[in-house]
Amino acid sequence: MAVIKGHNGSLRDGSGDIVGELTSFTLSVTQNSEQHNAFGETYMNTTATNKSWAVEGSGMFDPDDTQQAAILDELVSGDAVYAIEVRPEGDSVGDDKYTGSVVIGEVSVEASSEGVVAFSFSSQGTGTLTKGTVS
Predict the structure, then answer these.
(1) For residue 1, what pLDDT band results from cuts at 50, 70 and 90?
(2) pTM listed for this prediction
(3) If you ran DSSP here, which 8-state letter would residue 71 be given?
(4) What's the CA dihedral at 128, 103, 62, 7 to 10 degrees?
């Protein structure tokens, strides 16, 4: 069984540039389904229907990070659509990557007197999520 070190992963924009200072991200993919059966059938059948996906990220706020700023700017003054690339394994040739466009739903910049300023965002995929490999 392979063990993948979390610190090797990265979250990037559509051009492949790293969103800086993130300490965690989540890629979620959901398969919807419908159950059905006809008269006389004892057991239900399940049919896969459509899928959805989402990406969340969090870490430390960096006002000089171009990619963090782009996520916030896209929500504030753009159409909130952002091209994203998730690399859970790392950046080596052949590692898995997932790409697509997301609609930014929320961005938070949070400060407390006893910590560093935090940055987080949540988004919903729009259209297809594509699995590929790092080249």
Answers:
(1) confident
(2) 0.89
(3) H
(4) -30
